[in-house]
Amino acid sequence: MDFPGLTKYHKKPYADISPKLPELSQEGRTVLITGGSGGIGLAIAKAFIAAKAKRVIILGRHVDKLDSATVELLKEAATTGSPTVAEARVCDISSLESTSSLWARLRAEEKVVDVLILNAAANGAMKPLL
After folding, report:
1. CA separation for the pair 15, 106 (Å, rounded)
2. Can you count the helices (H) and strands (E) in the chain?
């Protein structure tokens, strides 16, 4: 990858933004990440595990992907000694019924979301702009 004029780029968090810094601790916080079963969403979940969040909840549409991502997150927590509890929920963010059900379940379980990461998107109907 070549970017003319760019002399330095980072592939990993650098020291100033490391989630392991005490001042960036997420202790006691519950984090919910849409699109958390892979890619950027999964990387964000791992960063919150490194920052010792109380709970990381990942959302996605595919149970198999969520299951394997949850196993990966639990291993990450165990390896790093983080107390984070990782869990997954099936939720289609393009469905009002699905998202309403998710929030109702979280409310019934008395789980308060402190940090919401919106990492998934839904496409609307394709139609002409003019």
Report:
1. 35
2. 3, 4
36-39 contact pairs (CB < 8 A, 24+)? 36/60, 36/69, 36/88, 36/117, 36/119, 37/62, 37/65, 37/66, 37/68, 37/69, 37/88, 38/65, 38/69
In CATH, the architecture of 22-117 is 3-Layer(aba) Sandwich (3.40)
Cα-flanking dihedrals φ and ψ of residue 45, to 5°?
A: -60, -40
pLDDT in tens, 52-107: 999 999 999 999 999 999 999 999 999 999 999 999 999 999 999 999 999 999 99
Place of tokens 């919401």: 116
Q: Comparing C-alpha atoms, which of 55, 59, 69, 58 is closest to residue 114?
A: 55
Assess contact for 121 and 92: CB atoms under 8 A: no
Q: What are phi and psi of 51, to 5 degrees?
A: -85, 5
Any idea where the domains of the chain sit in the sequence?
22-117
pTM of the entire structure? Answer: 0.84
Phi, psi (deg, nearest 5) at residue 102: -60, -50
